[in-house]
Design brief:
CATH superfamily of the largest domain: Response regulator
Family: Belongs to the leucine-binding protein family.
CATH architecture of the largest domain: 3-Layer(aba) Sandwich
CATH class of the largest domain: Alpha Beta
Distance between the termini: 54 Å
Protein name: Peptidoglycan-binding protein LysM
Radius of gyration: 31 Å
Structural class: alpha/beta
InterPro entries: Leu-bd, LysM, LysM_dom_sf, Peripla_BP_I
Keywords: Signal
CATH topology of the largest domain: Rossmann fold
Pfam family, one: Peripla_BP_6
């Protein structure tokens, strides 16, 4: 603590001293000239030469210049601390508007550092300064407007540094993390410092992390991010939620970067070196998760199962004296149709379980799509001996049921909602969220994209997905469409004729999806192309998007369910047709698969919770599979996901079958 106070005091003292000075040191970056530096600080070139006579020769990169500052100039320099400049030579017919789009900078920002442009037009051949916010080097991004003409910053290394006094027990990981740099950058700034010794002064970055604790302890350690690692993978590696990693490392808000030093829970594994710790428990869990279970061979508990189904029929709104009113309500009310279809699947599963020796006492209640009605149902009925509750369908009513039934520890299974729900110890979310689907596709791409020419096409609304994909696939090429249209010419330049091209399309814009798939379909005549997405949203299902194009591109996407095999499920279909005179839809099959899984789990263990302790693999039925994982704050979620692929005959197949 004493050393920490001394360092803080010295830092404050140096800040006070600087405020009394009229000068500032400037570290020369590659590509900078006396003219550009003078412009940046709003001073004359003569003022720089006055205090730096050697500057009249060639400026050396990393050399320091003394910059005279007036009060006005100091304010300007503070504003430009996080800005670097690109010298751009104006081409024929270029405009400020075009430059602002190419460099992603406001027109006023360009004028601010090129003041003659307030009153003059751009002149062909003149050099102007383009301000750019400093950021770490990432993947090459090809803007759809001018992929080949956009200049890149010549030097993206750390341009401004400060001194740091090494404290006892400090490590390179801790220091690098504190100043927002990588261990490699820290070592490059201090090439002569091999071993850290307390009291030695070293060079570091200026972006200081606002966190007083920088030393490792028994609870936390530091970890350097390796190539191809993802936030999802790290959360599993260290057995901590992604939200907790974000909380421990605020810098993750800008995305995960190779070389970033993270604060993570201490694995307390003395047999592994720092940075090489392997989460063996997670590996074992993942291996078991890939094992398919047949619970019908493990039945041992044949007590009658008490099953309650809560569904939003809302029958109170229907005229009960009129059969036609029921028919009209079913036709007009989608939620009612889904509820009835789902419940018919539930009843089929109960009959199937009965044939296996499992008897069930089934009750159903109408929640009327109302939280208060859910509360009334639970308060006015005895749920203490209920083995499981399936439903309600909607998020707010499901959370209300879980909250009320937590006192009895009765499992509540959310059957259809894909929204992230509040954590209750007894809440099971059986439908994977969009985030889980996305991460499943990330895993598939990471494992299978080796040797492929990967191209990411993402619009502005999918910037987060684009950033995550470039972290997983660091050699990928990126196209950022500026409009809801993408031509074949824009894509052709990044395609390979010798490698298989994997194109990942991230958008929900129908125009962009349609134009891109059409363009890829034409290009597929001369190139090997497969199409992927992390979210098959409604845009891909629109009539404007040609399914034949998707089939020829062998379209891959993550899915909660698969298309059932007519041959494998012939008996089920025939039984349903006999009872209801129609082919079962996805909600019928979902009701059947989910209910049969719950009943088999109850019959193969003491209760639902015990079944997850005994059996760690996944179960699979006609269209759905289930692998429940515990949430850090309570409850369970299903992370079993299919990666589906479409072939030229428009047949769906499972691409990630174990």
């Amino acid at each position: 603590m004493k050393y920490l106070l001394i360092v803080c005091f010295l830092f404050q003292l140096s800040t006070l001293s600087a405020s009394a000075q009229e000068f500032k040191y400037h570290t020369v970056e590659a590509g900078e000239t006396v003219y550009s530096i003078a412009k940046a600080y709003n001073i004359s070139e003569e003022a720089i030469y006055k205090y730096n006579p050697d500057a009249k020769g060639n400026l050396e990169v990393s050399s320091k210049l003394v910059i005279p500052l007036s009060q006005q100039k100091k304010e300007t320099s503070t504003e430009t601390e996080d800005i670097q400049f690109i010298t751009h030579t104006v081409k024929r017919k270029e405009t400020l508007y075009r430059l602002s789009k190419d460099y992603n900078v406001e027109i006023d920002e360009i004028k601010r550092f090129n003041k003659h442009l307030y009153s003059e037009e751009l002149k062909r051949g003149e050099e102007i300064l383009i301000p750019q916010r400093k950021k770490a080097a990432g993947n090459t991004e090809l803007a759809s407007s001018r992929e080949l003409d956009i200049p890149k910053a010549v030097n993206q290394e750390i341009s401004e540094t400060r001194e740091h006094v090494i404290l006892p027990k400090e490590t390179k990981y801790g220091i690098a993390r504190k100043y927002g740099i990588t261990v490699k950058e820290l070592e490059e700034l201090n090439p002569k410092v091999d071993v850290l010794k307390p009291g030695v002064m070293i060079r570091v970055g200026t972006d200081v992390l606002d966190e007083p604790v920088i030393l490792t302890d028994e609870v936390f350690e530091f970890y350097e991010v390796k190539p191809k690692e993802t936030l999802f993978g790290l959360s599993r590696k260290f057995d901590v939620s992604q939200d907790s990693l974000m909380s421990l490392n605020p810098a993750l808000e800008d995305g995960l970067k190779i070389g970033m030093v993270l604060k993570v829970p201490n694995t307390d594994d003395e047999d592994n070196l720092p940075g090489e710790t392997e989460d063996l428990a997670s590996e074992a869990e993942n291996e078991n998760a890939n094992k398919k279970l047949d619970l019908s061979n493990k039945l041992s508990n044949f007590n009658t199962k008490e099953l309650v189904v809560l569904l939003p029929y809302n029958l109170s709104q229907i005229d009960q004296d009129s059969i036609s009113s029921y028919k009209d309500a079913i036709l007009d009310d989608r939620v009612l149709r889904i509820s009835l279809d789902f419940y018919s699947g539930v009843k089929m599963a109960v009959e199937k379980a009965k044939s296996l020796g499992i008897s069930t006492q089934l009750k159903t209640y109408d929640t009327r799509r109302n939280v208060q009605e859910v509360t009334n149902i639970i308060n006015s009925n005895d749920f203490s001996s209920v083995d499981a509750v399936i439903g309600p369908l909607l998020q707010n009513t499901t959370e209300a049921a879980a909250a009320r039934l937590a006192q009895y520890n009765v499992p509540v299974i959310s059957p259809l909602s894909n929204r992230e729900m509040r954590s209750y110890q007894n809440l099971f979310q059986s439908r994977p969220t969009d985030e889980i689907l996305k991460n499943a596709m990330f895993d598939y791409l990471e494992k299978n994209a080796m040797g492929k020419n990967v191209i990411i096409i993402a619009d502005a609304a999918k910037n987060q997905e684009k950033n995550e994909l470039t972290q997983i696939l660091p050699n990928s090429k990126v196209i950022l469409p500026s409009e809801a249209y993408l031509s074949a010419e824009k894509i052709k330049g990044v395609l390979s004729k010798t490698q298989e091209n994997w194109v990942i399309l991230e958008s929900s814009n129908i125009g962009l999806i349609s134009s891109t798939t059409s363009a890829l379909n034409r290009l597929a005549r001369e190139h090997q192309i497969k199409l992927f997405t992390t979210n098959r949203n409604s845009g891909f299902e629109d009539d404007v998007v040609d399914n034949e194009h998707l089939g020829r591109l062998n379209f891959h996407y993550p899915s909660v369910d698969k298309q059932y095999d007519d041959m494998m499920t012939e008996a089920f279909i025939e039984d349903y047709k006999e009872q209801f005179n129609m082919i079962p839809n996805q909600y019928v099959v979902r009701g059947y698969d989910l209910t049969l899984d719950i009943l088999l789990r109850l019959a193969s263990a003491e209760d639902l919770y015990d079944s997850f302790e005994k059996y760690t693999g996944f179960t699979e039925y006609h269209e759905n599979k289930f692998h429940y994982t515990s949430k850090r704050n309570g409850g369970f979620y299903n992370d079993a996901v299919y990666i589906m692929s479409l072939d030229e005959e428009l047949n769906l197949k499972v691409a990630n079958d174990q």
